[in-house]
């Protein structure tokens, strides 16, 4: 790919040209949702203008066109994460649905009273609540891997949690609140040596790192389109084919069956078994275009630029008096959670918005982590490859001017 050029990349994102409160938009809420480049917008317009119909159903031209585009998107996603086969890629509505699919389709069959599921204190609520619901239903137990003060998982403690009742590990690849990159490959190898499958919540990793599910050797990998330049309402659950084949479907309906009588239904092969009803066809095609776009820039180039943003932002934020950074893991994605002395995160977010700077404030759907950090909320700046060092300068200037308001 050509050398990374942030100005040229930014020109692909029409929304980055907005002004907010009379100031140029500085968009630093990418961990919540990223923005969409023109090639993805164009692909959606082309689909809606000239290719739209329901898929897997009719022999007419448009249905065949839409089906081919939808299945081509699946193949794009397969390549993006280096899955062995396209049928290991299930389109979901997002990470949340992917994890719930496994909790129902795998968990209800395989988890019994007294069984243990290992999570970490860094997890997003979507990788806690589905397991808690399953544990409540089955009488199973959740075990939680702790972190050190830098926000790094304590791998020794993780290994010590294993026993003969351990049935599953479900772990985030990258923390949405602190940016910590967890040593998932090492954690998976340890779990597999004990016959325990591993689900990885990749919502914050797929947009920022080159993900290779075969190299990780994970059993499941879930992520969301809207955090990686794609549309909302679409995501992927990767699953090892043998596991998916053995699992129960999560939702019943059309397109997931082989035959139906009132006595008995037999299910379609994967992936259709897990895609009941009309899927988000346009969104899946849009996500296919999004991963093409990311690949054309190159995930290593994206990671390198974001690393430079992280280095620069860490240096400048930690130099600000009264600002405390949370999460200083050695291996870290470009997410900065911070507290500013005497200023509530909500006020910080509101006043930064008046400077055109978009950050997220709150608990980041990670309340157990907030308890561990001893805060109720943080302000969070999360970067994408289209952010610039000037965006960091704008954030720093914004924080200083908010501090003056409260001085
Ligand atoms: N896991 C992590 C680590 C996340 O950051 C998010 C989104 N904030 C999710 C899961 C849930 O993703 P979605 O809302 O797209 O289902």
UniProtKB/TrEMBL annotation:
Keyword Transferase set for record:
yes
Q: Which InterPro entries match?
A: Aminotrans_V_dom, Aminotrans_V_PyrdxlP_BS, Cys_dSase_SufS, PyrdxlP-dep_Trfase, PyrdxlP-dep_Trfase_major, PyrdxlP-dep_Trfase_small
- Recall the GO molecular function terms of this protein's record: cysteine desulfurase activity; pyridoxal phosphate binding
Q: What is its EC number?
A: 2.8.1.7
Which positions fall inside the Aminotransferase class V domain?
26-395
Q: Which keywords are on file for this protein?
A: Pyridoxal phosphate, Transferase
Q: Which reaction does it catalyse?
A: (sulfur carrier)-H + L-cysteine = (sulfur carrier)-SH + L-alanine
Report the record's Gene Ontology biological process terms: cysteine metabolic process
**UniProt-listed Pfam families:** Aminotran_5
Task: List residues traversing the bilayer.
Answer: none
Question: Which cofactors, by name?
Answer: pyridoxal 5'-phosphate
Q: Does the keyword Kinase apply?
A: no
Q: Which domain of life is it from?
A: Bacteria
Family per similarity comment: Belongs to the class-V pyridoxal-phosphate-dependent aminotransferase family. Csd subfamily.
Instruction: Briefly state the protein's biological role.
Output: Catalyzes the removal of elemental sulfur and selenium atoms from L-cysteine, L-cystine, L-selenocysteine, and L-selenocystine to produce L-alanine.
Record-given protein name: Cysteine desulfurase
């Amino acid at each position: 790919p050509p050398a990374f050029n942030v100005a040229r990349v930014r020109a692909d994102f029409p929304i980055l040209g907005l002004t907010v409160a009379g100031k140029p938009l500085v968009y630093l809420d990418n961990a919540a949702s990223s923005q969409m480049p023109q090639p993805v917008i164009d692909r959606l317009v082309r689909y809606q203008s000239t290719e739209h119909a329901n898929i897997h159903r009719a022999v007419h031209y448009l249905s065949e066109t839409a089906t081919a585009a939808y299945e081509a998107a699946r193949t794009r996603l397969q390549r993006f994460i280096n899955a062995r086969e396209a049928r290991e890629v299930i389109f979901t509505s997002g990470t949340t649905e992917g994890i719930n699919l496994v909790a129902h389709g795998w968990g209800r069959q395989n988890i019994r009273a007294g069984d243990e599921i290992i999570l970490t204190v860094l997890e997003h609520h979507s990788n806690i609540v589905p397991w808690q619901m399953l544990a409540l239903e089955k009488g199973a137990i959740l075990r939680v891997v702790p972190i050190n003060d830098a926000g790094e998982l304590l791998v020794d403690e993780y290994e010590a949690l294993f026993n003969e009742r351990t049935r599953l590990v479900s772990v985030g690849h990258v923390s949405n609140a602190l940016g910590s990159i967890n040593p998932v490959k090492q954690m998976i190898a340890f779990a597999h040596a004990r016959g325990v499958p591993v689900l990885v919540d990749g919502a914050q990793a797929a947009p920022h790192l080159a993900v290779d599910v075969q190299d990780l050797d994970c059993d499941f990998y879930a992520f969301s389109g809207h955090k990686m330049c794609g549309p909302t309402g679409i995501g992927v659950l990767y699953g090892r084919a043998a596991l998916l084949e053995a699992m129960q479907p999560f939702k019943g309906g059309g397109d997931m069956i082989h035959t139906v009588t009132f006595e008995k239904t037999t299910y379609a092969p994967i992936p259709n078994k897990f895609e009941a009803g009309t899927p988000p066809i346009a969104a899946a095609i849009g996500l296919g275009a999004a991963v093409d776009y990311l690949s054309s820039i190159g995930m290593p180039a994206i990671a390198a630029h974001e690393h430079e943003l992280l280095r620069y932002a860490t240096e400048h934020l930690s130099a600000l008096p009264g600002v405390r950074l949370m999460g200083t893991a050695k291996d870290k994605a470009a997410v900065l959670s911070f507290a500013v002395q005497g200023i509530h995160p909500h006020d910080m977010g509101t006043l930064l918005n008046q400077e055109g700077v978009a950050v997220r404030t709150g608990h980041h759907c990670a309340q157990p982590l907030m308890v561990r950090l001893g805060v109720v909320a943080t302000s969070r700046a999360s970067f994408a490859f289209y952010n610039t060092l000037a965006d960091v300068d704008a954030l720093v200037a914004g924080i200083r001017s908010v501090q003056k308001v409260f001085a």
